[in-house]
Amino acid sequence: GAGVSQSPSNKVTEKGKDVELRCDPISGHTALYWYRQRLGQGLEFLIYFQGNSAPDKSGLPSDRFSAERTGESVSTLTIQRTQQEDSAVYLCASSPRASEHTQYFGPGTRLTVL
Amino acid sequence: SQQGEEDPQALSIQEGENATMNCSYKTSINNLQWYRQNSGRGLVHLILIRSNEREKHSGRLRVTLDTSKKSSSLLITASRAADTASYFCATDLSNYQLIWGAGTKLIIKP
After folding, report:
1. What is the pLDDT of residues A70-85, one digit of tens each?
2. CB–CB of A24/A31 below 8 Å?
3. Is A92 exposed, middle or buried (0-12, 13-18, 19+ CB in 10 A)?
4. Which of B42, B98, B101 has the CB atom closest to A101's CB atom?
5. Residue A88 and residue B9: Cα distance in Å, rounded?
6. Which of A78, B18, B28, B76, CA to CA, is 20 to 30 A from B10?
7. ∠A69-A47-A37 over CA atoms, to 5°?
């Protein structure tokens, strides 16, 4: 079946602009995760959704970052007033349920803030 | 904060040789996973080993876990050019959150 998809694959924006990143998880997966990966580094947890609720937003780096999820489907990560330090690859992953620890990743969105 | 830390940070070997990567972690875990990442994009799950397991195999992959030393190793036998990638270990911080190391960059030279 279809895997996790993310769009856009690349986004170049100017400092101060807002951006919206989209994630389509695998159908039926109730758990959804957003991560940030800076160049040459590991994954930094941002937020976790169980269904359309977000029990853990602790990884969001600032109030410029927000995320939503529609039912057990699409999620969007919004970054307002982007800064250069927001430049990174943003990865989305889903899993059938949170207790099943294997995560299935999308290809990521590479965000460049000029 | 990072739980898992892989070493070496980078590894370059000849095709056909075996590659060994290590992961250390700090707190007790229920399971540990290894993932591969090609070209800085999406990660692919390779193998999960539970805390009560000591060794697990999958094709050319062999994973060991030593909970007394809080460490794991990933061995790739008979490496191929297609194995060139970054490899990450991830441990369960909670019932939903994983903690990731910074990865080992593996280069297989033809």
Report:
1. 888 999 999 999 999 9
2. no
3. buried
4. B98
5. 20
6. B28
7. 115
